[in-house]
Design a protein that fits this description.
It is a single chain. This protein has about 90 residues and is of the alpha+beta class. The chain has one domain. The protein contains 2 helices and 3 strands, in the order αβββα. A hairpin with a 5-residue loop joins strand 2 and strand 3. The radius of gyration is 14 Å and the shape is globular. The two termini are about 25 Å apart. About 5% of the residues are buried. The model has no long low-confidence stretch (mean pLDDT about 90).
Length: about 90
Amino acid sequence: MKQISDDKKREIIKALEEHGANYPCPRCGNKSFALLGGYLSQTVQNDLDSIAIGGLSIPSIVVVCKKCGFLCQHSLGALGLLPSEEVASE
């Protein structure tokens, strides 16, 4: 699988910093994090009885604590990293 480019990672890190996402890990207090090498797309479900494929989703990036492995998701739309037509559907 192709990884996110270094340029894109720098853009994501800059957006996180601009939005104030620079606090230590909420679980262990560590200050060292890494970006997951790809995107995560959370599907928004209307109920818990079935699984919908396609439809509304929230594209995000995942930040991983380098000490305890805590995962933190950030919406790409909220960070201003999606084209405007995709942000409207979030």
